[in-house]
Amino acid sequence: MSGWDENADTITRPIGDVIDGLGIEARVDEGELVAGAVVLLKVIDGDGECRLSLAHSDGLGWIERAGMLRVAEVLETGSATQAGGDD
């Protein structure tokens, strides 16, 4: 990765079509409401350089965003099953 982007000097736009185009799906059961989202994007610019860009939905505080990222890390690394085994 060549850099980290906190949306400085960039144009922001809705990314629903981008997410749909990547084929990302999530399980949301009938009657459930999605209350927020944190999105981490790997972006490749015209020169082939890669960067990460982080976006979140309105209304999420920093502690919620940090918590969501931590839970995602634990789920991705498999640490959740290891940590939950002691009863």
Walk me through the topology.
Elements (H helix, E strand, L loop, with lengths): L2 E3 L10 H6 L16 E7 L5 E7 L5 H16 L1 H5 L4
Parallel strand pairs: 1-3
Antiparallel strand pairs: 2-3
Question: Would you write up a description of this structure?
Answer:
By secondary structure, the protein is α+β, with helices and mostly antiparallel strands. Helix content is about 30%, strand content about 20%. It is built from 3 helices and 3 strands, in the order βαββαα. The protein has a 3-stranded mixed sheet with strand order 1-3-2, with helices on one face. A hairpin with a 5-residue loop joins strand 2 (about 40-45) and strand 3 (about 50-55). The longest helix is centred in the last third of the chain and has 16 residues, at about 60-75. The termini are far apart.
